Amino acid sequence: MPALESLLLADTLVALTVGGAFRLAGATDLADLCWALGTIVAVGPAVGWVLGALRRGQAGVDLIAVLALAGTLAVGEYLAGSLIALMLASGRTLEAAARRRASHDLRALLEHAPRTARRRTGTEVRMVPLGEVAVGDLLVVGPGEVVPVDGIVVRDPAVLDESVLTGEPLAVRRAPGRSVRSGAVNAGGAFELRASATERDSTYAGIVRLARQAGAQSAPVVRLADRYAAWFLPLTVAVAGLTWLVSGSAVRAVAVLVVATPCPLLLAAPVAVVSGLSRASRRGVVIRDGGALENLGRARTLLLDKTGTLTGGRPRVLDVIATHGWQPSQVLRLAASLDQYSPHVLARALVDEARERGLRLSVPSDMSEEPGRGAVGTVAGRRMCVGRLDLGVDKPTWARAADNRAVLDGAAVVWLSVDGHPVGAVLLRDPLRHDAPRTLRRLRAAGIERLVMLTGDRAEPAREVGAVLGLDEVRAGLSPADKVAAVRAERDRAVTVMVGDGVNDAPALAAADIGVAMGARGSTASSEAADIVLTADRVDRLADAVTIAVRSRRIAVQSALGGMALSLAAMAAAALGLLPPAAGALLQEGIDVAVILNALRALGDDRASRTALQPSTAALIHRFAAEHDDLQYVLETVRGAADRLSDGPGPEALAAVREVHRLLTERLLPHEHAEEHELYPALASALGGPEATATMSRAHVEIDRLAHRIATHLTLAGPEGHLAPEQLDDLRACLYGLHTVLRLHFTQEEENYFSLAQ
C-alpha cells in the first residue's frame, strides 16, 4: 500500500532526525528512545510484508530486515535499528514508485469499437445496437465509419484503411464479394456489407479479448532483491544460529544479524533501478515499472512489428517517372496540385513531397473524387486525373516499366493523366527508418541474441526489410492472434520483448515479458498495453532503453553482490567476536553508503554506448540531412536520363544528359565536396578517427569519377552536336552506376551518420 510505505518513510526519517538532534544536545536517553520508537514502528509493517510473502510461498529480503530490527532492539543498538528502519522504508517506497504501471484497461480499443450499425431492410435504413446484428443482415457503412462486424462487400467496392488491424498505412480496395474485417475504417464512399459474423465473433472483438487474456496471463515479476535473498537469508540465519550455538553468546549472534542487515538489497538495488528509470525518461523512454526495467535488462529475444516501428508508418514518394516531353517535377507538381484537397493517405504523401521540394502548387477547379479511383479536376486549363490507371494491355512501354518497378520495389503507384493520356507515375513506399539499422546493431551489442519481425503486411516487402536489417526471422501476414501465439512461443525460450505501434499489436504487447509501444505516433491502445513507451518518434530510443536497462541492472547486481560480500566478511568477523554490535552497525552503514553511491551511477550516461556529438557537428548533420531531401530530385533525373537513352541518341536524350550534368555541377558535387571537407572531419573526432569515414570518402571519389565521365561524353557530343551510337552503352552505364552509387551512399550516410543526431 503506497500510503503505508510513505507514512513509514516519514516516521522513520523523523525518528532518526529527532534522535540525532537529541544526541547532539547530549540527551542520550531521549535519543535512544526516538531511535527505538522508529525501529518499533518499522517492525509492524515489516512483519506484515513477511507474512504476505510467506502466504505466497516466498521468503524474501524483508525477513532478514525483521530479524535485524528485532536483534537491534534486543541488544539495545537503537541507532542501528533506526537506520535499518529508514533503509527498509526507503527501499519499499522506491520500489512502490518504480512498480506503478498503467492499467491494461484497453480504453483506446474500446473507444474505437463501434456500438451501433446501420441495418438496411428493403429501402429502410435504421440504426440498431451492434448486439442485434445477425449473420446475413445487410448493413450500410458510411464514409469514415468503422466496419462494425465481419462481412462480405455487396454491390459497390469498398476502400478501407486497415491499419488498425494490420498496421499497413496504405488503403486497400475490396471488390464486391470480398470479405472485410471489423475494425477497418471506411476510407471511401458508403458501401453495403452482408454480415458474416455477429459482434462477439468478429475480428475486432477478438482483438479486445486477446489483449485482456494476454495481460491477465503475464507472469509476475520477481524482485531482484528477493532473488538474492533466497540464498542470503538462510545463510544469515545459519551463521547467526551457529555463532550462538558455538560461542554461547547472544550478543555475537545479534552482531552477525546487525552486520548482515540487507541494506544493499533493500535500498541499493531499488536505487539503481529507479535511477535507470530516471535516466530512461530523459531519453524519451517511459518505463512504467521497475520490474519491467529489470526484465528488459535480461531480455534475449526481440520481436518487432514492421509498419510504424521499423518503417516510418506512412508512405513517402520513392520515385517519379515521366513520359517523353515531361519532367518528373512537372508530374509531381500537377499531381499534388490536384490532390491537395484530398484526405487520402497517398494524396497527403504527394502534397508533402511537392512542398518539401519547393514546388508551387496550382489551385484546381471542377474537382471531384471517386473513392477507390482517384481525383479528377482542371489544372491550368487542362483536364487531369490522379489515381488508378485502367489501360490494361494498351499501356505504353514506359507505363509498363513503371508497373514493373512498383512490383520490384514493393511500391504503390499513383498515375497522372492529362486530357485522357497518362503522362507520369509516382511510386510510393513506406520507407525504412534511417535509424533502424544502427538500432538493431546496438541491440545485438547490448545482448539481444534473436531479432524477429512479426507483421500483418505482405511477405515480399517484409522479407526485403528483413534482409536489409539482417533479422533472424521474418513472419508476415500475421493476424493479431498469430502474433500472440508467436510471442508466447518465443517466451518459452527466453525473456522476450515485443515492439509495436498499432491497435493490432496491443495483444502481443500484453503477452510479451516486456511490451514496448512506439507512442509518438502509435495508437493509444498499444501504449496502454505496453510496459515501456517510446515518446519520441525514433526507434533508436529502443536501443537506448535496452542499454540503460542492462547497465542499471548490472549496477544493481554489483551493488547488491558487493554489499553482500562485504557483509559476509563482516559477519565472519562478528561471529569470531572481533566485531561488537555497535561497531558492526557503524561498519554496516559504511557498506550501505558505498553500495548506494555505486547504485547512483545508474543516473549517469554510459559514454561507451553512445557517440558524443558536439553541437556544431549535430548542426552540420541536420544541414546535410536536409540537403539529402532536396537532392532526391537529382537522383530521379539521373535515372530518367539513363532511361531516355534506351530510345536512342535523339535530341531529347542529349537534353536529358545535359540537365543531369547541370544538376551535378551546380547542386550534387558541391554538396559532396562540402561533406568531405566540413562534415567528415567533424565526425572523425566523434567516431574515433578519419578511418571511420574513409570508405564514404572513397564513394565521393567514385561519384566525382562518374560525373567527370558524363561531362566527357557531353564534350564528345559537342555543343550543338548529338550523341553518337557508340557512346550510348558507356553513358547509360555511367548514369545507372551513378544513380546506384548515390542511392547507396545516401542510405549509408543517413543510417551511419545522420541517425547520430537527436
What does this structure look like?
It is a single chain. The chain has 758 residues and is α+β, with helices and mostly antiparallel strands. Among the domains are: 107-209, Calcium-transporting ATPase, cytoplasmic transduction domain A (Distorted Sandwich); 284-312 and 433-546, Rossmann fold (3-Layer(aba) Sandwich); 316-429, Calcium-transporting ATPase, cytoplasmic domain N (3-Layer(aba) Sandwich), CATH 3.40.1110; 615-756, Four Helix Bundle (Hemerythrin (Met), subunit A), CATH 1.20.120. The chain contains 26 helices and 22 strands. A seven-stranded mixed sheet has the order 10-22-21-20-11-18-19, with helices on both faces. Strands 2-1-3-9-4-7 form a six-stranded antiparallel sheet, with no helix packed on it. It has a six-stranded antiparallel sheet with strand order 12-17-16-15-14-13. Helix 8 (224-247) runs antiparallel to helix 9 (250-259). The radius of gyration is 34 Å and the shape is elongated. The chain starts with a helix and ends in a 6-residue tail after the last helix. The model is unreliable at 98-108 and 214-222 (pLDDT under 50).
